[in-house]
Design goal:
- The protein is an alpha+beta fold.
- It has helices spanning 3-19, 55-64, 111-120, 129-132, 157-161, 170-183, 228-236, 251-257, 286-295, 298-305, 335-344, 364-376, 389-396, 420-428, 442-453, 457-474, and strands spanning 35-40, 69-71, 77-79, 82-87, 92-97, 135-142, 145-150, 191-197, 201-206, 219-224, 242-243, 260-268, 272-276, 310-312, 351-358, 381-388, 409-413, 477-490, 493-494, 509-510.
- The strands form four sheets. Strands 1, 8, 9, 10, 11, 12, 13, 14, 15, 16, 17 and 18 form a twelve-stranded mixed β-sheet that branches. A four-stranded antiparallel β-sheet has the order 4-5-7-6.
- It is globular and about 70 Å long.
- The N and C termini lie far apart (56 Å).
- The relative contact order is 0.15.
């Protein structure tokens, strides 16, 4: 079997940390960032690192906690609380933990903290349960060694565990209980919990006992500012240093201010697509799904709505991800072809519903208007339905009733980056949990199973390329675009945005005067 190859590569990365070679996590360089305030889009649901793995939470967690293993900006797995690791057999990953690390309350960090954290992630209410559920068994070898055992051979294990396992202080957690810990947590990270005013601010203060050295900031503040234009105003006024999720329309305001700059990812971190209910007539006809894709002018959307900050898409995965197939081009804008396909399918006077969640999909209203206008030009009458996310989510996750209330085409996004392939598998493998559009192709399902169990990188890549090509041929989605992530960055700071939306105060630096 080929799995030891992955183990050897992982071991090499781990040993690099001990030798001080490239690939090791550099010790933090003391800086004088003062207070760093991030104007975020949402408040958090919990501060408990064992309970949530969404990007919003993981950005916060990376300040309060340290991960077991982490990803660098190139999506290469790097040591963190685990110095090194190896694959013992097809199911077992052994992690060798750092010695001498303590939690912010003085508790020693040991393998038992990793075990305890993963056990908490199994609680029925844990959002992290599905991601970390790949770990079926845990064996503490000794205080600094732990075996994590998967239920099946999974070549993607390290990627799935990177920046998702955030060890919590087990003694304190057991003493105060889950509810109190979720409001007043303790980790090993560079910043300690100070206060949380729900719906407003979470404040962290410098942890001088951090094992990597002196943190760069005295305080890090996560300030929930839901309205995008207000987030931008906070940066322009100096009240915040970083504004999250800046809409393209606000970029000119930032550029002309003289007080801040626009930071942009180089690839689409949050692809936007239209799920087509695959088994709902007449959308169960390939020609109808093709017609939808030919009818929409993606380039115009990128140029006019995104102001050029993005790229049209023609497959499941965006550029910059391991699952992106460079041989697949986006559908050309061809309304005549769309009309011909509808005529060939015997479709005339088609009426359909286009549904989208407000706030979750950027510029949802404007995007729906453009798509409806494009489809109207080929003879499709579109009813646009915009919902608050809780209403939309209720329809989206209504698997018992087969999403019967969901629009014929629904706009949605997913987080790409290093876990794009895994996320796409959740949405396109009929056996997985996010197949909202009811896409079913047995060959795709089989390829996903082969990909999960295959440890040879070339074969894994070939499976992904096949999946993308079959998806392009089947057209279960209205392929749309990959918008770049945009940030407002105060002039006092220098920072290069990552292609996974992760941001850490330790990656910031003061801009030279």
């Amino acid at each position: 079997m080929s799995y030891p190859v992955v183990g050897r590569r992982a071991m090499t990365l781990g040993l690099a940390a001990l030798a001080g070679l490239p690939g090791s996590p550099a010790r933090a360089v003391a800086g004088n960032l003062g207070t760093v305030t991030m104007a975020t889009a949402v408040d958090l649901q919990t501060l408990d690192g064992s309970q949530n793995v969404t990007t919003y939470h993981r950005i916060f967690f990376k300040h309060l906690y340290d991960p077991l293993i982490t990803l660098d900006p190139s999506f290469t797995i790097q040591p963190a609380l685990a110095e090194r690791w190896e694959q013992v057999d097809a199911l077992t990953w052994r992690f060798h933990l750092r010695k001498g690390v303590t939690f912010q309350n003085g508790e020693p960090f040991t393998a038992d903290a990793v075990r305890f954290t993963l056990e908490q992630s199994r609680r029925p209410t844990a959002q992290s349960r599905s991601t970390l559920g790949i770990v079926k068994d845990i064996h503490v070898v000794d205080d600094s060694t732990i075996d994590l055992i998967t239920g099946a051979p999974l070549a993607n294990t390290l990627n799935q565990l990177a920046d998702t396992v955030w060890p919590v202080a087990p003694g304190y957690y057991a003493r105060v209980g889950p509810e109190e810990f979720s409001r007043s947590p303790v980790g090993t990270g560079p910043y300690k919990f100070d206060s949380w005013r729900r719906g407003d601010r979470i404040t962290l203060v410098r942890h001088d006992g951090w094992w990597k050295g002196t943190p760069k900031a005295d305080k890090v503040v996560f300030w929930a500012v839901p309205e995008a234009s207000t987030r931008v105003a906070c940066v322009l006024s100096g009240e915040a240093d970083i504004a999250w999720q800046v809409p393209p329309i606000q970029t000119t305001r930032i550029k002309n201010s003289g007080n801040a700059a626009v930071g942009a990812s180089t690839a689409g971190v949050q692809p936007i697509f239209g799920g087509i209910i695959y088994d709902r007539p007449p959308f169960n006809d390939l020609r109808v799904r093709q017609a939808l894709n030919y009818a929409v002018n993606r380039q115009a959307i990128v140029d006019r709505l995104l102001l050029g900050y993005g790229k049209p898409m023609g497959q499941f995965s965006p550029t910059g991800t391991v699952s992106y197939n460079p041989d697949i081009a986006p559908f050309p804008y061809d309304p005549d072809k769309a009309r011909a396909l509808l005529k060939e399918a015997g479709i005339s006077g088609l009426k359909m519903t286009l549904e989208a969640p407000i706030g979750i999909v950027p510029q949802a209203s404007e995007l729906c208007q453009v798509i409806a206008r494009n489809l109207g030009q080929v003879g499709i009458e579109v009813r646009v339905q915009l919902d608050e996310y809780p209403v939309f989510a209720k329809r989206l996750y209504d698997f018992p009733e087969h999403q019967k209330e969901l629009g014929d085409v629904f706009l949605m996004y997913y987080k790409a980056g290093p876990t794009a392939a895994y996320t796409v598998s959740e949405m396109t493998d009929s056996a997985q949990g996010w197949d909202w559009s009811h896409y079913l192709n047995p060959k795709v399902d089989a390829l996903w199973q082969q990909w999960q169990a295959e440890f040879d990188e070339n074969r894994r890549k070939s499976y992904l390329m096949q999946i993308e090509q079959i998806g392009r041929d089947d057209v279960p989605w209205l392929f749309l675009h990959e918008p770049q992530s945009l940030w407002g960055v105060a002039n006092r700071l220098s920072w290069t945005p990552r292609n996974d939306d992760m941001i850490h105060a330790e990656d910031l630096s003061l801009r030279p005067a």
